[in-house]
Design a protein that fits this description.
Blueprint (H helix, E strand, L loop, with lengths): L1 E2 L2 E2 L1 E6 L4 E7 L8 H8 L10 E2 L7 H9 L17
Parallel strand pairs: 4-5
Antiparallel strand pairs: 1-2, 3-4
């Protein structure tokens, strides 16, 4: 998404598996409908009504709320396990 010549948001989407890998809007341009518009543009590229996004950080509460307002549903929670080997 551009405002003038400035890139203010983008979405990285794979149409073959209908997955959103990344969605981002510059902090100073958030809450202006840019991410909503990016998601609505996916309809041009998607033959199925279902899209998914994975690995949403549990600390990203604003993103989680935004995605829920857009109709996405949390279907699974993941955990990350780490072990120091050195």
């Amino acid at each position: 998404a551009f405002i003038g010549s400035d890139l203010v948001g983008y979405i990285l989407f794979n149409s073959s598996n209908r997955r959103i890998y990344q969605i981002a809007v510059a902090q100073q341009h958030r809450r202006k409908g840019i991410a909503t518009q990016l998601l609505s543009e996916l309809k041009v590229f998607v033959s199925s009504a279902k899209v998914q996004i994975t690995n949403v950080d549990e600390k990203a509460k604003n993103l989680q709320l935004f995605l829920q307002r857009q109709g996405l549903v949390n279907t699974i929670n993941q955990i990350e396990m780490v072990k120091m080997i050195f």
